[in-house]
TrEMBL record:
Transmembrane segments: none annotated. InterPro entries: Glyco_hydro/deAcase_b/a-brl (IPR011330), YdjC-like (IPR006879). One of its GO terms (molecular function) is metal ion binding. Its cofactor is Mg(2+). The keyword Magnesium applies. Keywords: Carbohydrate metabolism, Hydrolase, Magnesium, Metal-binding, Signal. GO terms for biological process: carbohydrate metabolic process. It comes from the Bacteria. This is ChbG/HpnK family deacetylase. Residues 1-24 form the signal peptide.
Length: 313
């Protein structure tokens, strides 16, 4: 009897999760891609944070081996990004929605006025240094105000975002913030970066927030500190050679090493100046282009995904 009850409960759970599973696993088919196509967005984060980041990312985008990038509207080099966006209207540029200011010496505050988002700011008026500190004090509605202010600032400068994603993953720190993230994407008609492989390990409340308006990519990959210690090129080669069919996103951080990047990092190795130069080196190299050809990987953009979805619906 107990085994029968367990079988029934298992079947019920499978039925409850079926809509989510189907939605997540068939994005490529829904958008008209072949079932066995290996699709990849190579996505450079942090545009606007430094001139060195902008220059490295612009060069990689112009070369065509980095297919997308995202913009931090709080940061000092945003006007340079806006000029690039206006002169390169086909560039796939989204919004890297920012709720933290993580570097020791390079800091930024909110785009919205401080009195409207005070729960997000520290005593000096900067955004908190990490997601955990942000979550402890954040008023969710103030998070909504701030991320919308970031999008509007970029739009006012002539930037036309192609998608939304989240700096340091902070908008996935709680189910409530995750819902605000998704709702903001729906409001602006923009895809938000969500992946099936990350959602599968998260609590059910995250999956329950997904609707058929949201676009869930199959896999999201990003190097971490252990991968940096072993070798970033090794990590990227392994990921590319094992890339599954479907829609995949690979997050990288491209910048040119030098005094500016080193000062931003302040001696930190994680996502620091050397790391960003290594990302730039690999993703603008002939070796990377050769792997794409050898593995039959097709580079795509967020704009392409959104346009295909519009055509298919």
């Amino acid at each position: 009897m107990q085994k029968s009850i367990m079988r029934i409960l298992t079947c019920l759970l499978a039925l409850l999760l079926a809509p989510w599973s189907l939605m997540a696993q068939h994005l490529a088919a829904e958008l008209g891609y072949g079932a066995n196509e290996k699709l990849l967005i190579v996505h450079a984060d942090d545009l606007g944070v430094t001139h060195a980041t902008n220059q490295g990312s612009f060069r990689a985008l112009d070369k065509g081996t980095v297919s997308s990038a995202s913009i931090m509207a709080n940061t000092p080099w945003l006007p340079e990004v806006a000029r690039y966006a206006i002169s390169h209207p086909d560039a796939d540029l989204g919004m890297h929605l920012v709720l933290t200011s993580e570097w020791r010496d390079l800091k930024w505050g909110s785009v919205a006025s401080a009195d409207r988002v005070s729960s997000l700011l520290d005593s000096a008026g900067y955004l908190k240094s990490n997601c955990a500190d942000m979550v402890r004090s954040a008023v969710p509605e103030e998070v909504r105000i701030e991320i919308k202010a970031q999008i509007e600032k970029a739009r006012a400068l002539g930037i036309k975002p192609t998608h939304l994603d989240t700096h340091m993953g902070c908008l996935a720190a709680t189910p409530e913030l995750f819902r605000i993230y998704l709702e903001t994407g729906r409001e602006y008609g923009l895809p938000t970066l969500i992946s099936r492989n990350r959602l599968e390990s998260m609590p059910p409340a995250y999956r329950e927030a997904i609707t058929d308006q949201d676009m869930v990519v199959d896999n999201l990959f990003m190097a971490g500190e252990p991968d940096y210690e072993i070798g970033l090129e090794t990590f990227y080669r392994d990921q590319l050679q094992d890339l599954p069919a479907g829609v995949n996103v690979l997050l990288i951080h491209t910048a040119l090493d030098g005094a500016e990047s080193a000062a931003m990092a302040g001696g930190a190795e994680a996502f620091g100046s050397r790391w960003r130069q290594l990302d730039y080196n690999f993703f603008t190299s002939d070796a990377f282009a050769d792997i794409l050809a050898e593995e039959g990987i097709r580079l795509i953009t967020w704009r392409e995904l959104a346009e295909r979805r519009k055509q298919e619906r």
